[in-house]
Design a protein that fits this description.
This is THIF-type NAD/FAD binding fold domain-containing protein. It comes from Hypericibacter adhaerens. One of its GO terms (biological process) is cyclic threonylcarbamoyladenosine biosynthetic process. GO terms for molecular function: tRNA threonylcarbamoyladenosine dehydratase; ubiquitin-like modifier activating enzyme activity. By secondary structure, the chain is α/β, with parallel strands linked by helices. It has two domains: about 160 residues, 3-Layer(aba) Sandwich (Cytidine Deaminase, domain 2); about 260 residues, 3-Layer(aba) Sandwich (Rossmann fold). Helix content is about 25%, strand content about 25%. The chain is built from twelve helices and 19 strands. It has a nine-stranded mixed β-sheet with strand order 9-8-7-6-2-3-1-10-11. It has an eight-stranded mixed β-sheet with strand order 14-13-12-15-16-17-18-19, with helices on both faces. The chain has a two-stranded antiparallel ribbon with strand order 4-5. Strand 7 and strand 8 form a beta hairpin. Helix 2 packs across helix 3, helix 5 runs parallel beside helix 7 and helix 5 crosses helix 11. The model has no long low-confidence stretch (mean pLDDT about 90).
């Protein structure tokens, strides 16, 4: 099982600023992270809920260590674990760049105080984190007798940063020359090879996203869609053939084949189910692309991404009849980031829209879709994802909402959010992070099944 620490970028910046403040006599500052976990058979994801600095008065004078916590600091942290039912992780920072490591004193003290948290909150993992100016390291106790080092760090937001300590590397052969996209960063090919992307919906919107993710070299692509291809899908489903229609091939099977045709080394995880029955693919994903019909499905999918601290990128299009044989084609791409304004904050998911039928998408019959509009929106989504995760372009947006006018074939930034955003997101409180039924004592059982 891979331990992953996941923290919003904005919160991480606040933690580093606080730990950098001088103290009256301690050489460094310390604090605690409260964490709400979720797990799959592959991963244990530790989602940071909040940072709790140790109060100035709760340090003890001790020149033999950088910072010595007094009993009140430990008691307050134990109270948080007990009353809020969260995992607690001690945190401090080393003033350098690169991967930090714990000192012998750190390791000795952790072995003492971490076990106290299991006495008050035995169902949660606990541990310790050390930061540098650009990286982190840590240890998680899955039980009082079982401790594991972090295998991966996910700092999610704008920008998003992924650190994998034992990374995958694309195979060296004639099919893996990424020199034409080297401007994305000197190690972008390795970064992409270690990213796990989930595409929900493998139809007109999801199939070109899968294609583009394969071309740029995303190493793990998960595709979820319960449907089989129908004759009307062939006008827009990238990679599909007439033979697929004849044998009613599952859409995820078509996506799987098309991705592997582009890059055979990519790990593809197709799941022919509703996405709600494949949440294990979402929990440890680094990004989720939503290509679903209906506002309510968007709301549910964004809610799941917020719960597990995953960036969500949504695309959708609409065709509306405005006169006889005259239609307006429009679409949108929205990026919703952990801890930032959600699609309700932006004014996209409104109660009026949620009350509509999920597939009430215009007047052209059925759910009108065309390949060029779908593919344009897919390109905007993949471009936003690449900007978010690579140093190619400075990305500091707290959200992104692009609108496509299919009639004039222009893309513009939506003006709607400036009339709707009023302070921090109030729709997804931090207490709703992670798996509400998580119990660390069941992890060993899950791994043995």
């Amino acid at each position: 099982m891979t331990p992953i620490l996941r923290c919003p970028t904005q919160l991480l910046d606040e933690i580093r600023r606080d730990l950098s403040r001088p103290h009256a006599f301690a050489a460094e500052r310390v604090g605690f992270l409260s964490v709400r976990p979720a797990a799959t058979r592959r991963s244990l994801v530790l989602i940071v809920e909040a940072y709790h600095p140790v109060a100035d008065a709760d340090y003890l004078r001790d020149r033999s260590v950088g910072a010595m916590m007094g009993p009140d600091a430990i008691r307050k942290a134990l109270d948080i674990a007990l009353l809020q039912n969260v995992g607690m992780f001690h945190i401090h920072m080393h003033e350098h760049t690169g991967r930090p490591s714990f000192s012998r004193t750190d390791l000795r003290e952790q072995d003492k105080f971490v076990l106290d948290f299991f006495k008050v909150c035995p169902t949660m993992p606990h541990g310790a984190v050390v930061l540098s100016h650009d990286l982190a390291a840590g240890r998680v106790w899955i039980s009082p007798n079982e401790v594991e080092p972090f295998a991966e760090l996910n700092f999610m937001g704008s920008p998003a940063t992924i650190h994998v300590f034992s990374p995958n590397t694309p195979p060296v052969d004639n099919g893996t020359d990424f020199s034409r996209q080297s401007f994305l960063g000197p190690h972008s090919d390795q970064l992409f090879a270690n990213i796990r992307a989930l595409v929900v919906g493998a139809g007109g919107g999801g199939s070109p996203i899968c294609q583009q993710l394969a071309h740029i070299g995303i190493g793990n692509i998960r595709v979820v869609d319960p449907q089989e291809i129908e004759p009307s899908n062939l006008n827009r489903l990238v990679g599909a053939t007439a033979l697929d229609v004849k044998r009613r091939a599952p859409k995820v099977e078509i996506a799987d084949r098309h991705i592997r045709d582009i890059r055979p080394w990519i790990e593809v995880m197709p799941r022919q189910k509703p996405w709600q029955e494949a949440d294990d693919l979402l929990i440890d994903a680094h990004v989720v692309f939503g290509c679903v019909d209906g506002y309510r499905q968007r709301m549910y999918l964004e809610s799941a991404c917020r719960r597990y601290g995953v960036p969500y990128i949504d695309i959708g299009m609409d065709v509306t009849r405005i006169a006889e044989q005259h239609y307006a084609v429009a679409g949108q791409m929205i990026a919703s980031l952990p801890g930032q304004p959600c699609m309700k904050c932006l004014g996209f998911l409104t109660q009026d829209r949620l009350d509509q039928e999920e597939n009430d998408y215009g007047a052209a019959g059925g759910v009108p879709q065309v390949i060029w509009t779908n593919s344009t929106l897919a390109s905007l989504a993949v471009g936003t994802f690449v900007r978010m995760f690579t140093p190619w372009f400075s990305y500091a947006a707290c959200y992104e909402w692009l609108e496509l006018d299919g009639n004039s074939q222009t893309v513009s930034t939506s003006q709607q959010p400036q009339f709707n955003i009023k302070g921090p997101c109030r729709h997804f409180p931090a207490k709703d992070l992670g798996d509400p039924f998580f119990d660390v004592t069941t992890l060993s059982i899950q791994r043995d099944v």
